[in-house]
Amino acid sequence: MNALLSFPGQGAQQVNMLHELPEQPAVQAVLAQAQEVLGQKLSEIDNAQALCNTRNVQLCLLIAGVASARLLIEHSCKPKYVAGLSIGAYAAAVVAGALDFADALRLVALRGELMQQAYPKGYGMAAVQGLTLEQLDTVLEPFQAQGQSLYLANINADNQLVVAGADQALAQLAQAVKTTGWGRVCRLAVSVPSHCSLLEEAAKQLADAFSNIQLKRAQIGYISSTTARLMLDGEQIKQDLAFNMCQIVDWQGALRAAYERGVRLHIELLPGTVLSGLARRVIPQAVTYSFQGTRLDSLTHLMLRAGADNY
Fold this sequence. Notes:
Blueprint: E1 2-7, H1 25-38, H2 54-75, E2 81-84, H3 88-95, H4 101-118, E3 123-129, H5 133-145, E4 150-157, E5 160-166, H6 167-180, E6 184-187, H7 200-210, E7 221-223, E8 230-231, H8 234-243, E9 249-250, H9 251-260, E10 263-268, H10 274-282, E11 287-290, H11 296-309
Helix pairs in contact: 1-2, 1-4, 2-3, 2-4, 4-7, 7-8
């Protein structure tokens, strides 16, 4: 059975997530490199106050994802595929061998700064549970007709969607959904309107920074969370990463694409367990675990078995 390693996006962050990583050489090497490249102590970016800043959140997710993946691979074998939701795509590209970790750190720091500067306050994202895509379109239609900043951002599962926009519009959406009796709206720990046209200008600025970065051909299959397609070419992955902040995430499609390619083992890297829950809904036939809360030797056994089955 093929294995897929998945990397969570913004909203999965946890206070002290870097301090609570396993004390293993592979992890410490990642932390040391991150601290050197960023030129600051990591204790400055994963405390409660620091995690109110988009840059710090995204850096912590990148570092935690790469560290836990390298530890797992060091004790087992390479997966067949990787995929990351939103900022998680950067960790996926690093683990796939397409993007250098040092370059990823610098790009993610800039990405977070650009997003924070574009919308320092008054915007965010919310999960809409219980509605189908068609039902959500019906609810959004009057808001969009009035020119309100409200956009579909993520398709995570059949009835788990995410919307981005202005705080006031998101609050009105929550009331509208409640009135229908179809579902509920829950604000996410994201302070910017990701994955919609509001971030097009920021994405173009990030793409300019990417122009000086060379990406290699991926050594592990990289499945895009925006196009739900397999990518190996470095230039394709570069474009995917640069513009994913302003494109709709089709995580459901990415998981289904992985399953169609033979993935039967899904492991979510640190931090969190949200992607594991989604995988159980979208590809229930696959075996799903999260790094958080699972013993390393158990995950190692699963990965070794998946690797052996590939040959």
